[in-house]
Amino acid sequence: MKMRNIGFLAIVLFSMVAYSAFASAAVTIEEVKLDNDVLDTSGTNFVRAVERGESFEVKVTLSSDIDMSNVEIEAEIAGDARDDVIGDDTDVFDMVANRTYVKKLTLPLTGRMEEDEYLLRVRIQDRRNPTVEQTYALGVELPEHEVRIDDILFSPSGKVKAGRALLTTVRVENDGDRLEDGVKITVSIPELDLSASDYIDELEPEGEDDDETTSEELYLRIPECAEPGLYTVRVDVEFDDRDMRATEDALIEIIEGDACELDATEPSPGPGAQGPQSVITVGSQSQDITAGTGGAIYPITITNNGRSTKTYTISVAAADSFANVRISPSNVVVVNGGETKSIFVYVSALETTAPGQYGFSVSVSSGAEVQQIPLTANVVQGSAVAAGSLKRALEIGLVVLVVILVILGLIIGFNKLKSDEDERKDGSGAQTYY
Length: 434
Description:
CATH topology of the largest domain: Immunoglobulin-like
Radius of gyration: 48 Å
Strand content: over 45%
């Protein structure tokens, strides 16, 4: 009985030793490459953290001295402080004895990994056999230049009405080990051809107190008649002397604006229409200007016959060669629906301007509507004007003198006639006494 038990134990022990030898010799990891660099099991393999979203390729070469089924390979880096998943595994596959297999995995080494030393664990396992594992030391270092977009904030958030302003602030962080200066942030809506930019003077390296910051508010004015819908807002951050760029996209919804709704209801010129929506009138299109002294004022009246507010821009062309021009109160005028406003174009001729007639134009624009008004300045010399004024004064004085003389003559003649009549009356009424 004892001999039988001893024999049984010997068989079990022999089977366990044989199984252990079989299992240890079943699978061999021949080589592991990280982005085509062969990893060394005896030392530290240095790699750099890559840009967020990029990945490394892990290539595992293995073989087995027995047939195996449902084999799976895992590659993993553990210990990330932010709980990012840094690992990958293959689909299950079968292995034939004494054949070499190459399997590829993807290792997402994120840009947020802390600078430290990690272990890359490569495991090969199936349903029944013990797991075969090989470890490789990886020294993860920070990139020299790396700026990441942390957050994009809109005001108003989510939706903006056409014709209103969209304010955007961008939160950025320096994930590199170099100081970044002159970081340019650009916010744009490509579909509307809108963009605005701001600069951040300095971003300290990762781990410093000022390694992240928020931009100033970037202002984008949405066109009044922008088509309602979802639009892509693109944020570009340029750094390292603008040789590198980080880009993020966000969505904003544009809803229909009030001004565009009113414009759409206004009648267009044609049969039955009430006339043009904007009426521009000018007081006098030609005025005399004395060279070097004084000037002339051209009043322009703008009437908005529509129901929505319009912005008009006034500009002067072809006047710089002979005069100085000033627009008062401003070259931009906001006119409410049904309202009339006046602006004044003040033109003063230069001292060196030769006498003569000079043509120039005033343009009044609102959106795509542009109206040009031709004007004329008759430049005269100061002495000619003085002589003309003196001549006119003398003429007026002469006329006044003649009128005065005529009046005096009439008065004298009337008085003389009256005196003669009185004398006749006195002579006829006298009597002689003897």
